[in-house]
Design goal:
493 residues; alpha+beta; 18 helices; elongated
Length: 493
């Protein structure tokens, strides 16, 4: 792997090496800086940019390393302050220093002078350099501070640690699902409604040890599954409001709408109405609206008379910068199809039966995927929003990539909680095995960048490793917990 994170600083290297300054260098405190020897450009994969430099500051000449960063704050952002390889730095050089900081500190706590190159260049030079840096940086949005050092970590170690982090993330999902199951039990016992009526779990309830008998109510599991499926359908932009919708339009309420034949139309009316996405047709010419929209409004007028929960607003939903396939209208329509399966076709029992009975893991994984790929149908086959026909036909409410993510993020943790609750240890182990070998077609910006930074692209499609990459970034990299990470322990110590 190349020193990718340094590529956008190449222009600054040229300025430093050629001493292309319009005025003599000085520190923020007025000390004169004279470059006797800029040093040798470090072509290794780690460490300061220039080695064996000789720099005179006032009357003293220093021999050591020089680090050049685009921004003063990059010293910390790139982890130099906790990396012993930077302990011999004698001068820190940056292009930008917004708050006019005078020093940086190395791992040993030694204070190092910092100078800002922009103070010694004319405006045209600054503009040209900045443009080149920004153009290069667009291609490099790396997240890991240890990118320059990561190639020194053995591939086997990376693989083992990412798998460990993947299991840790899986266990966190299981804990969240189990906590919500207990909360649903608490709500049902006290006959509370969400989210309008606030409540607080008692200390006694939080500390309670539950038995399997307390969770035999089928509707608890249906509501639990419904909530997490809807949250997953919301993708990143709408997952919170989709979860709220599922908690407001509870499954026990939806079960009373009508029989199997009319359920899809009535459930869509209820969910679009509660979501606040249903167009208001009152007082407007009927020809402005489709028969479908008018029928939904007619049904919603009846439903809202028996609904006493939260009603949301169109402004609660995100459409901006979403692909039409991810619009909440499409996701809700797809969610209704899952609801229909849960309520009328015993969907959860089907999942459980498949895991217990199918022995071949390839067959089992393909069988699970088939349950979560939902082809489009009805009005939403040709619309992304109400009363505005799409340019092309919509093939799926839920495609393969989204199905993969739902299986990894919801289905397997859900089944793990279920099997462990009812003492089905063999089935629980089988679920974990599926997680360990599952391959998915989807990725995201975080996993792509972490895989590239760590030089582990071959692991990207295996779910356990991609989940580990997300856990690594969210729990360590983004929180600057480098020294609590096993990679950081290796490269920074």
């Amino acid at each position: 792997m190349t020193r990718a994170i340094k590529l956008y600083e190449a222009e600054l290297y040229n300025v430093w090496q050629n001493k292309s300054f319009g005025t003599p260098l000085t520190t923020k405190t007025g000390q004169k800086v004279d470059i006797i020897d800029p040093g040798e450009l470090n072509k290794d994969s780690s460490g300061p940019d220039f080695k064996n430099a000789r720099v005179k500051i006032d009357e003293l000449t220093y021999v050591g390393d020089v680090e050049i960063d685009r921004d003063y704050n990059d010293w910390k952002h790139h982890g130099h302050n906790i990396d012993r390889k930077y302990n011999k730095v004698i001068l820190h050089v940056c292009f930008l220093n917004k708050y006019h900081q005078n020093y940086v500190y190395n791992k040993e706590g030694r204070k190092i002078l910092s100078i800002c190159l922009a103070d010694f260049l004319d405006e045209e030079e600054i503009k040209e350099i900045n443009n080149k840096i920004e153009a290069s940086k667009e291609e490099l949005s790396h997240k890991l501070r240890c990118i320059e050092l990561a190639e020194k970590i053995p591939f086997g170690f990376k693989k083992r640690y990412l798998a460990e982090l993947g299991v840790k993330r899986f266990e966190k999902k299981c804990t969240r699902i189990f906590d919500r199951l207990k909360e649903l039990k608490f709500i049902s016992e006290l006959q509370l409604k969400e989210p309008k009526i606030g409540y607080e779990l008692t200390e006694q309830f939080n500390n309670k040890t539950f038995s399997a008998d307390e969770f035999k109510d089928k509707e608890l599991w249906e509501q639990l599954f419904y909530e997490f499926i809807f949250e997953a359908l919301g993708y990143s932009k709408n997952k919170s409001i989709m979860l709220k919708l599922a908690r407001s339009a509870r499954i026990d309420f939806l079960k009373h709408l009508d029989d199997k034949e009319e359920f899809t139309n009535l459930a869509e009316a209820a969910l679009f109405g509660i979501a606040g996405l249903l167009p208001n047709v009152d007082g407007l010419p009927k020809e402005n609206f489709s028969t479908y929209t008018l029928k939904l409004n007619e049904n919603w007028e009846k439903i809202k008379k028996i609904y006493d929960g939260e009603i949301y607003d169109e402004t609660d939903w995100h459409f901006f910068k979403l692909r039409p396939q991810n619009f909440p209208t499409i996701r809700i329509a797809g969610g209704v199809r899952f609801l229909r399966e849960i309520i009328f076709d015993d969907f959860i029992s089907k999942l459980i039966k498949k895991v217990i009975e199918i022995r071949n893991f390839t067959v089992l994984m393909n069988s699970l995927k088939s349950l979560f790929i939902i082809k489009s149908s009805g009005y939403w086959k040709k619309h992304y929003i109400f009363d505005n026909a799409a340019n092309r036909e919509i093939k799926y409410f839920v495609g393969l990539s989204r199905a993969d993510e739902m299986i990894i993020n919801v289905v397997l943790p859900f089944l793990s909680v279920y099997f462990n609750m009812f003492g089905k240890k063999d089935a629980g182990k089988k679920v974990m095995k599926i997680f360990q070998i599952y391959s998915q077609n989807s990725d995201n910006k975080i996993t792509r960048e972490v895989a590239e930074n760590l030089d582990v692209e071959p692991l990207l499609r295996k779910s356990i490793y991609s989940q580990g990459m997300i856990e690594l970034f969210r729990s360590y990299c983004s929180k600057n917990k480098c020294l609590e990470c096993k990679f950081g322990e290796q490269v920074f110590n």
